[in-house]
Design goal:
By secondary structure, the chain is α/β, with parallel strands linked by helices. The chain has 2 domains: 2-100 and 245-262, Rossmann fold (3-Layer(aba) Sandwich), CATH 3.40.50; 102-241, NAD(P)-binding Rossmann-like Domain (Rossmann fold, 3-Layer(aba) Sandwich), CATH 3.40.50. The chain has helices at residues 16-26, 43-52, 65-71, 77-82, 101-112, 130-141, 154-164, 176-181, 225-232, 241-256, 266-278; strands spanning 2-8, 31-37, 55-60, 74-75, 87-91, 94-98, 122-126, 146-151, 168-172, 185-188, 213-216, 236-238. The protein has a 6-stranded mixed beta sheet with strand order 2-1-3-5-6-4, sandwiched between helices. It has a 6-stranded parallel beta sheet with strand order 9-8-7-10-11-12, with helices on both faces. The structure holds 2'-monophosphoadenosine-5'-diphosphate.
């Protein structure tokens, strides 16, 4: 039986097992996917033990993505750039680290907008943390026309924009209006609007007719405050569940040797989970 798990600290709230176990069942694969809380001082040992006890691989979540990048024997190009790993596979006795977050975002957008031209759009990203970084790099790989980083901490935005190169610009959140002027595609990669997180700011999107699409990486609640504001301004809206599912699909293939049979299947399952959480 092929075994995999997601590791983190805490791990209670991870929905990865729901996604992978859904796919295991619908693909009729005899496999196992668990969530495992790993104490910080146990991290390296745990990974070595998993390698030697028949695990195909592991997913890695908060707060270990950066630390695991240092533990791996080899890293993919994108994991090197991000300095962060969300997928470990064990290959020929070696620990190989990869990162599927950015491509998960791209896949979820292309699902909804298959003909999207990256070269013709100016993307603005709210945020400059781990999620924003992975999206910014993925957009840069797709040759996005412009990548505008807007963050509360301007220094962090500048640092990320310098790494991306000349297509990138940085603005402070207080200067959001300057950043949005040229934007055609807006992305929220902050925790603003997340259940239990900071509230979303009012962006005044109706004043920016050039913005055609808004994508939120927040998936709980299913319809965020930012998504509501964007919808009311006539902007096409993409929610965060797609990114969650699409970053999991390449992990599934790496662990169990085949892509999931119905990649979109977990949508309904996760939407129901969101409703349950909302009713807590
Ligand atoms: P993740 O890995 O999910 O990206 P992170 O690296 O902690 O998490 O990044 C969180 C992002 O949300 C950051 O861009 C953070 O802004 P700062 O860099 O200025 O801290 C942003 N964020 C968190 N709380 C915020 C708030 N109340 N207002 C605006 N931005 C906020």
């Amino acid at each position: 039986m092929k075994k995999a798990a997601v590791i983190g600290f805490p791990i209670k709230h991870s929905w990865s097992p729901d996604i992978h176990n859904f796919w295991l069942k619908s693909s009729k694969i005899n496999g196992e996917y668990k969530k495992i809380k790993v104490q910080p001082e146990e991290l390296q040992n745990f990974i070595l033990k998993a390698k030697n006890s028949g695990y195909s691989g592991l997913n890695v979540t908060v707060p270990y993505k950066e630390k695991v990048a240092q533990i791996c024997d080899e890293l993919s190009g994108i994991a090197i750039k991000l300095g962060a790993v969300n997928l470990i596979t064990f290959r020929g006795g070696k620990i190989f680290g990869d990162n599927t977050d950015g491509e998960g975002f791209i896949a979820s957008v292309l699902n909804k907008l298959p003909n999207l031209s990256f070269e013709n759009n100016n993307f603005a990203i709210l945020g400059a943390g781990g999620a924003a970084k992975s999206i910014a790099y993925a957009l840069s790989e797709r040759k996005a026309k412009k990548i505008i980083i807007i963050n509360r901490d301007l220094e962090k935005a500048k640092k990320l924009s310098e790494k991306i190169g000349e297509t990138a610009e940085a603005y402070s959140l207080t200067d959001i209006k300057k950043g949005l002027k040229k934007t055609t595609f807006l992305i929220n990669a902050t925790s603003m609007g997340m259940a239990g997180g900071p509230p979303p700011i009012k962006m005044g999107l109706s004043g920016f007719p050039s913005i055609l699409c808004f994508a939120d990486i927040v998936y709980n609640p299913g319809i965020t405050g930012f998504m509501q504001e964007a919808s009311l301004s006539g902007i096409k809206v993409i929610g965060g569940i797609g990114m969650l599912i699409n970053q999991a699909a390449p992990s599934f293939e790496a662990f169990y040797g085949q892509p999931p049979k119905n990649p979109e299947g977990p949508y309904a399952l996760l939407e129901n989970k969101i409703m349950d959480v909302g009713n807590d």
